[in-house]
C-alpha cells in the first residue's frame, strides 16, 4: 500500500491522484460496508463507492485535497446512497425495513440514513467480510471479492498479484456478486450456530491471500509482499472486530511472525534464501514482538486451533537467534499436535523436517517415505525437495540430486526452480 503520500500535516499539497489512490485503499472497505447495509447489495454498494471515487478524481485536482479526505469520500458516498433511495420505487419499503416512521419528514429520514452509515468498522465491516467470504462462492471468487471490496485493489492489481488474466479476475468478481444476488445472500453476520464454520472460511481466505504473497505458486518472483500486507491488514482489522476469538489472534500472530522474515528471504539478486540460511539480524523485531503478543493473546483466550498452533511453531523460530538455537523438539511436538487437530500430508511433511532437525535426518526420512503414496503431494514440489535435503544430509548424493531435479520440474515458480537446480548442481561436485 502507498502510505508514502501521507504526511504529518495531512495530505494537502500532495499529488491528488496518489492521495485518492491511498485513501481509497484505506477507506474502501469501510465505505462499501456501510453502503452495503443500506442498499442491501454488494455490487451496488461498490458502484456507489466508485462513484464517490470518480468525483474525487474529478474535483480534488481543481479544488485541492480536503483536510480529511477519508471523511470527504465517505460523506460523498453517503449522499449517493441517499439519492438512490430517493429514486427507488421501493423507497417506502426501505423505510419500513429500517424501522422508520413513514410519516417522518424527508429531512429526518436523510439524517437517519447518514447516521446508519457512520459505524467506523464495527458490524458493517464484519458483515461485508463474512459476505465476501460466503461458502456459496468458489475459493477463487472469495479471494478476488475480498481483495476488491475490503482491500481496495483494482481488478488489474488482483490479476497481477495472482498472475492470471485481468478478464479472468473480472469474471470471478462478477460471478461472485451475481451469485450473492441470485441466491439472495443477505449482508449480515451469520447466526451464532453458523459463526464458527463461517469464521473458518473468512480466516482461510485471508491466509490464502497471505500465503500466495509469502510463497508465490508461479511466476518470476518468489514473493509478492503487497499481498502479505493486504492479508495482514485484513487480519488486524478482524482481530479488532472480534477480540475474543482465539483463532483470529492465532492467524494474526502467524502472519506477523512470518512477515517478520520477508526482507531476509531473498538475496541481493532476488534469489530465495531458505529459513536455515537467513540472516536473523534482518528479521523485523517489531513484527516479531507484535506476533508474540498476538500469540499470547490467543493462548489467554483458550485452546489453540490450527492457526494458533502454526503461530506457536513460527514463534520457535522467532525466539531463536540461530538455527542451532531453535527448539526443534518443541516444534516437532507442536507439529504432532497440529496433525491431530488439522490432519494434512503437508503438516506431516513439515513435521518430518522438524523431526530431522531434532532427532536426525534418518528419522525425518522415515516420515517422508510414508508420504510417497499421498495423492495430495503427487505434484507438490516440496516433497521431493525435502526428501532430497534429507538424502543429502545422509550422504546419498546421487539420490538427492535426482530429487532436487524432480522438484525443479514440478514447481511453477521460476525462482524456486532455480533454487532446486542449484541444489542439484552442488551435489554433482
From TrEMBL:
<dbReference type="Pfam" id="PF20239">
    <property type="entry name" value="DUF6596"/>
</dbReference>
<dbReference type="InterPro" id="IPR046531">
    <property type="entry name" value="DUF6596"/>
</dbReference>
<dbReference type="InterPro" id="IPR007627">
    <property type="entry name" value="RNA_pol_sigma70_r2"/>
</dbReference>
<protein>
    <submittedName>
        <fullName>RNA polymerase sigma factor</fullName>
    </submittedName>
</protein>
<dbReference type="Pfam" id="PF04542">
    <property type="entry name" value="Sigma70_r2"/>
</dbReference>
<dbReference type="GO" id="GO:0016987">
    <property type="term" value="F:sigma factor activity"/>
</dbReference>
<dbReference type="Pfam" id="PF08281">
    <property type="entry name" value="Sigma70_r4_2"/>
</dbReference>
<keyword id="KW-0731">Sigma factor</keyword>
<feature type="domain" description="DUF6596">
    <location>
        <begin position="198"/>
        <end position="298"/>
    </location>
</feature>
<dbReference type="InterPro" id="IPR013324">
    <property type="entry name" value="RNA_pol_sigma_r3/r4-like"/>
</dbReference>
<dbReference type="GO" id="GO:0006352">
    <property type="term" value="P:DNA-templated transcription initiation"/>
</dbReference>
<dbReference type="InterPro" id="IPR036388">
    <property type="entry name" value="WH-like_DNA-bd_sf"/>
</dbReference>
<comment type="similarity">
    <text>Belongs to the sigma-70 factor family. ECF subfamily.</text>
</comment>
<keyword id="KW-0804">Transcription</keyword>
<dbReference type="InterPro" id="IPR013325">
    <property type="entry name" value="RNA_pol_sigma_r2"/>
</dbReference>
<feature type="domain" description="RNA polymerase sigma factor 70 region 4 type 2">
    <location>
        <begin position="130"/>
        <end position="180"/>
    </location>
</feature>
<feature type="domain" description="RNA polymerase sigma-70 region 2">
    <location>
        <begin position="28"/>
        <end position="90"/>
    </location>
</feature>
<dbReference type="InterPro" id="IPR013249">
    <property type="entry name" value="RNA_pol_sigma70_r4_t2"/>
</dbReference>
<dbReference type="GO" id="GO:0003677">
    <property type="term" value="F:DNA binding"/>
</dbReference>
<keyword id="KW-0805">Transcription regulation</keyword>
Amino acid at each position: 500500500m502507498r502510505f508514502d503520500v501521507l504526511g504529518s500535516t495531512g495530505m494537502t499539497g500532495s499529488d491528488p491522484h496518489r492521495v485518492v489512490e491511498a485513501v481509497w485503499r484505506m477507506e474502501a472497505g469501510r465505505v462499501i460496508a456501510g453502503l452495503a447495509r443500506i442498499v442491501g447489495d454488494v455490487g451496488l454498494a461498490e458502484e456507489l463507492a466508485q462513484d464517490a471515487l470518480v468525483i474525487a478524481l474529478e474535483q480534488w485536482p481543481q479544488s485541492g485535497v480536503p483536510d480529511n479526505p477519508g471523511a470527504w469520500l465517505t460523506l460523498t458516498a453517503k449522499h449517493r446512497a441517499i439519492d438512490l433511495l430517493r429514486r427507488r420505487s421501493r423507497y417506502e419499503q426501505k423505510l419500513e425495513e429500517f424501522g422508520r416512521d413513514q410519516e417522518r419528514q424527508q429531512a429526518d429520514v436523510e439524517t437517519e440514513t447518514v447516521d446508519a452509515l457512520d459505524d467506523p468498522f464495527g458490524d458493517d465491516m464484519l458483515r461485508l467480510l463474512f459476505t465476501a467470504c460466503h461458502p456459496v462462492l468458489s475459493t477463487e471468487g472469495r479471494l478476488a471479492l475480498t481483495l476488491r471490496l475490503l482491500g481496495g485493489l483494482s481488478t488489474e492489481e488482483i490479476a497481477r498479484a495472482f498472475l492470471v488474466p485481468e478478464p479472468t479476475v473480472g469474471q470471478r468478481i462478477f460471478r461472485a456478486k451475481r451469485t450473492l444476488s441470485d441466491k439472495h445472500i443477505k449482508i449480515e453476520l451469520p447466526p451464532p450456530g453458523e459463526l464458527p464454520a463461517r469464521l473458518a472460511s473468512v480466516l482461510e481466505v485471508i491466509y490464502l491471500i497471505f500465503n500466495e504473497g509469502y510463497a508465490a505458486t508461479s511466476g518470476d518472483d518468489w514473493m509478492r509482499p503487497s499481498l502479505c500486507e493486504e492479508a495482514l491488514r485484513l487480519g488486524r482489522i478482524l482481530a479488532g472486530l472480534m477480540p475474543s476469538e482465539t483463532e483470529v489472534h492465532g492467524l494474526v500472530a502467524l502472519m506477523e511472525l512470518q512477515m517478520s522474515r520477508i526482507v531476509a528471504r531473498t538475496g541481493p539478486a532476488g534469489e530465495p534464501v531458505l529459513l536455515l540460511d537467513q540472516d536473523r539480524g534482518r528479521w523485523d523485531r517489531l513484527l516479531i514482538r507484535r506476533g508474540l503478543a498476538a500469540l499470547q493473546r490467543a493462548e489467554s483466550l483458550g485452546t489453540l486451533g490450527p492457526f494458533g498452533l502454526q503461530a506457536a511453531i513460527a514463534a520457535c523460530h522467532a525466539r531463536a537467534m540461530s538455527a542451532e538455537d531453535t527448539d526443534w523438539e518443541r516444534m516437532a511436538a507442536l507439529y504432532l499436535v497440529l496433525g491431530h487437530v488439522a490432519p494434512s500430508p503437508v503438516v506431516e511433511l513439515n513435521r518430518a523436517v522438524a523431526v530431522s532437525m531434532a532427532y536426525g535426518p534418518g528419522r525425518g526420512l522415515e516420515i517422508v517415505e510414508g508420504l510417497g503414496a499421498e495423492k495430495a503431494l503427487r505434484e507438490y514440489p516440496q516433497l521431493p525437495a525435502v526428501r532430497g535435503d534429507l538424502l543429502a544430509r545422509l550422504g546419498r548424493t546421487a539420490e538427492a540430486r535426482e530429487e532436487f531435479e524432480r522438484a525443479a520440474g514440478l514447481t511453477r515458480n521460476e525462482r524456486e526452480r532455480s533454487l532446486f537446480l542449484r541444489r542439484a548442481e552442488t551435489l554433482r561436485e
